[in-house]
Automatic annotation (TrEMBL):
Originating species: Streptomyces crystallinus
Domain Cyclic nucleotide-binding: 7-110
Top-level taxon in the UniProt lineage: Bacteria
Pfam families: cNMP_binding (PF00027)
The name this protein goes by in its record: Cyclic nucleotide-binding domain-containing protein
Record InterPro entries: cNMP-bd_dom, cNMP-bd_dom_sf, RmlC-like_jellyroll
Classification via PROSITE patterns: CNMP_BINDING_3 (PS50042)
Length: 154
């Protein structure tokens, strides 16, 4: 089953090609921090290979790893929303190869083309919804007395 938030399935080909036309290949060694919660979100990445973990600050504890991202997945969405501050942290769990994008350039492309903007916005929205659900389940598994209660209704 394909990942509904992967760029290859979530963004129509014409818009994916347009976005990829401004990509730069960037590699990160294992254990490299891509960004920290609270930092300025001025870029984002799409994973080509490897694994990136997402984490969240938990007062009095180590950061909680709330997700893992792999090939085709978006790393970072805070670049799209003012005040452009990272809401999570991210680290290369393994050596990671990515495509990197300058956020200001992508926002300008979005401002110039309503259809492109709608497609990218819908993609990022699906990513957000998926990650919010996954983070909720992960945090319940980590900190709730009886785990996530997968059988419960939302």
């Amino acid at each position: 089953m394909s990942n509904p938030t992967s760029i290859t399935t979530a963004l129509p080909v014409e818009y994916r090609d347009r976005l990829m036309s401004i990509a730069h290949e960037i590699n990160f060694p294992a254990s490299t921090r891509l960004f920290n919660e609270g930092g300025h979100a001025d870029r984002f990445w799409i994973v080509r290979s490897g694994t990136v973990t997402l984490d969240m600050h938990v007062p009095g504890r180590r950061p909680a790893v709330i997700g893992q991202l792999g090939s085709g997945e978006l790393v970072g969405w805070s670049w799209m929303f003012r005040p452009y501050v990272w809401q999570l942290g991210a680290e290369a769990m393994t050596p990671v190869r990515t495509y990197e994008f300058d956020a200001a350039s992508v926002r300008t492309m979005m401002d110039d083309d309503v259809a492109f903007s709608a497609a990218v916005g819908a993609w990022v929205g699906r990513v957000l919804a998926h990650r919010l659900h996954a983070a909720r389940i992960r945090l319940l598994d980590l900190y709730a007395p009886h785990g996530s209660g997968s059988d419960s209704l939302l």
